[in-house]
Write a structure and sequence with these properties.
This protein is α/β, with parallel strands linked by helices. Helix content is 41%, strand content 28%. The chain folds into 2 domains: 2-27 and 62-149, 3-Layer(aba) Sandwich (Rossmann fold); 153-280, 2-Layer Sandwich (Hypothetical Protein Tm841, Chain: A,domain 3), CATH 3.30.1180.10. The longest helix is centred in the middle third of the chain and has 15 residues, at 120-134.
């Protein structure tokens, strides 16, 4: 049997995780002096409440090599083949720790794939891997296909305010002040596993988001049409549903899925972040 697994940055709905029997190892989120596990006992709203009450940004951390060895060991039972697709190696030590665990386990049935992505960008690859497994492909063939597909993954977001990026040391106080004052919303894209600022929008967040979506669909227009994610940290469900309907109205994707970002991703982007994510033809 082939088992597909990932970490809690996967950011896809629980029903898709259960439907595809995806195993997920939760990453650490630290609030003050207390450690929590993303998706187990800490969630998006906990992050925003903590920052609002303390002014401090939570910290995130990978799981240890030993944790990964335990996680993989359980999945490898009964001669299973295990494919782990995790957050980009450029963004976290998670991939490196998973690779070290593989080396120490010395098991040829364990495969580690660098998604070169984050959030539902990882989820897109994981779902593809599950579909390949259902089609009867062997683990090595699936890994080859997913490793190649990782280079054709449109993952992007628009961030409403730079407060969380500033608290996390990812932008200067001057840049944060200027952007917030002028209502500048940066567009962030994943390129070769790294986050890059590829554009900016000016104005109210809810007003500029349709333009952002149109820009991405025009810029990255060799779509794989099976599924698209609208992943977000927004509290206004009506607005998110409007964005989903807007994408559906294009008639491009067979399925447009709304997904709320988990605690780890929310720690770094803050409230009112929204992205459109889909795979591209190779």
């Amino acid at each position: 049997m082939i088992r597909i697994c990932s970490d809690s940055c996967i950011d896809i709905p629980k029903d898709l995780i259960e439907e595809n029997n995806i195993a997920v190892i939760p990453l650490f989120v630290t609030l003050g002096e207390n450690d929590f596990l993303d998706g187990d006992n800490v969630f998006q709203q906990d992050i925003f409440s903590y920052v609002a009450s303390t002014g401090q940004l939570p910290k995130t951390a990978s799981r240890s090599v030993e944790d990964f060895k335990t996680f993989f060991g359980e999945l490898l039972e009964n001669d299973n083949q295990v494919i782990y697709i995790g957050i980009s190696s450029q963004l976290s030590s998670t991939y490196q720790n998973a690779m070290k665990a593989k080396e120490e386990l010395n098991n040829d049935n364990l495969f580690i794939v660098d998604s070169k992505s984050l959030s539902s960008g990882i989820g897109l690859l994981v779902i593809s891997a599950c579909n390949y497994a259902k089609q009867g492909l062997d683990a090595k063939s699936i890994v080859q296909k997913i490793s190649k597909q990782a280079d054709f993954n449109q993952t992007s977001f628009v961030v409403d305010k730079l407060d969380y990026l500033y608290k996390g040391g990812r932008c200067s106080a001057i840049a944060r002040f200027g952007a917030n004052l002028l209502k500048i919303k940066p567009r962030l894209e994943l390129r070769a596993g790294k986050i890059e600022n590829t554009g900016k929008y000016m104005g109210q967040f809810k007003i500029i988001m349709k333009k952002y979506i149109d820009d991405m669909l025009k810029k990255h227009n060799k779509f794989k049409s099976d599924i698209c994610f609208i992943t977000h940290t927004c509290q206004d469900e009506a607005f998110v549903n409007e964005m989903v309907r807007f994408v559906e109205s294009k008639g491009i994707f067979e399925k447009v899925v709304q997904s709320r970002a988990g605690a780890t991703i929310s720690c770094h982007c803050g409230e009112n972040t929204l992205g459109i994510l889909y795979l591209l033809e190779e």
